[in-house]
Amino acid sequence: MQFELLTTDPASQARAGKLTTDHGVIETPIFMPVGTVASVKGVHQRELREDINPDIILGNTYHLYLRPKMDIMQKAGGLHKFMNWDRPILTDSGGYQVYSLSNRRKIKEEGVRFKSHVDGSMHLFTPENVMEIQRQIGADIMMAFDECTPYPCDYRYAKRSMHMTHRWLDRCINHFNKIPALYGHEQALFPIVQGSTYKDLRAQSAEYIANAGAFGNAIGGLSVGEPAEEMYGMTEVVTAILPKDKPRYLMGVGTPINILENIALGVDMFDCVMPTRNARNGMLFTAYGSINIKNLKWEDDFSPIDEMGLTWVDTEYSKAYLRHLFKCHELLGMQIATIHNLGFYMWLVREARKHIIAGDFVTWKEMMVKQMDNRL
């Protein structure tokens, strides 16, 4: 696995790079559609490949561990074969999902004991078995096991949690190096910077993670309710410290505007459920602002969903027709909106890359932020 930094924008920290894996090349900055349970909700793999065309998608360790379970995953030959996806996959460690089970889990030094949301059964995640599970899943990029702190978070708790995440990282790296990959392709491990919204903790964590010498690094614990300006402030602290010659992944972020602002701060990789989740609720993202397709104003608007035509659905269907599908609770409406939103997110990061290479990213970004901050 290899990462090559190609260009840095002269007026910001934005970067264009190339990450080469055994399942293909990832051109950064990149957005990763979320395929939580081996499926990007509402989209066939053929549509994902041919219409949305992401370089990499994300799977979820917690959910895949519970269903279909690891014996099935190994019998299938790993997640790539199980879901018929031949491009790179990243798996998160399950730390965020465990964090969200606040009334169903207990965190200790050993790991996290939690109750399954599926059937109430008890399970234990440790840094060691999370490495084993991700080896069994077979993702190209694996995440270290961490604790994601809530927002707001007491300073003392954030500090204790950060140090435990660092100790867990050491255990992850030790076990990762002991156990082999199972399916014949290389896997990389990314540690995760924590520290809540405290600059000194974020800087301390970034130093620790940078010194771990991993192939790439991630920033976690943001986009959990804090104001956008705090997110940007923490990202700026961390990217100033993380190695410039390694990919940087900001986990769970965010809106199109969040993504552009964090690209400007030096982030290379993003994932978020927002384009798919919001699509299922009738919200469409466009270069000129967001659309609530359920609003009455679209009832007799027979213009294309998006005249930019970034995916085939944008010009195949009208706004009036899409609104009709949502008002009738027709599944096709959610599928159309999902393809549109994911196509838009992919266009946005690829357009950002073009402008980074051209050297005019900041001017373009400021124009796009202003445009996208509209409700149409």
Explain what this protein looks like in three dimensions.
The strands form five sheets. A five-stranded parallel beta sheet has the order 4-15-14-13-12. A four-stranded parallel beta sheet has the order 5-6-10-11. The mean pLDDT is 97. It is of the alpha/beta class. Helix 7 packs parallel to helix 8 (199-211). Helices cover 43% and strands 18% of the residues. 47% of the residues are buried. It contains 15 helices and 17 strands. The chain has helices at 45-52, 61-66, 70-76, 79-83, 95-100, 127-137, 155-178, 199-211, 228-239, 256-264, 274-280, 312-316, 319-327, 331-358, 361-372, and strands at residues 2-8, 15-21, 24-28, 30-32, 57-60, 89-92, 105-107, 112-115, 122-125, 141-143, 188-190, 192-193, 217-219, 248-250, 269-271, 283-286, 289-292. It is globular and about 60 Å long.
**If you average the pLDDT, what whole number results?**
97
> What about the largest sheet?
5 strands, parallel
Count the DSSP helices. Answer: 15
The percent range for strand residues is 15-25%
- Gyration radius, to the nearest Å? 20 Å
Low-confidence stretches: none
Q: How many β strands by DSSP?
A: 17
Q: Tell me, what's the shape?
A: globular
Structural class: alpha/beta
Biggest sheet, strands in spatial order?
A: 4-15-14-13-12
Helix fraction, binned, reads: 40-55%
Distance between the termini: 43 Å
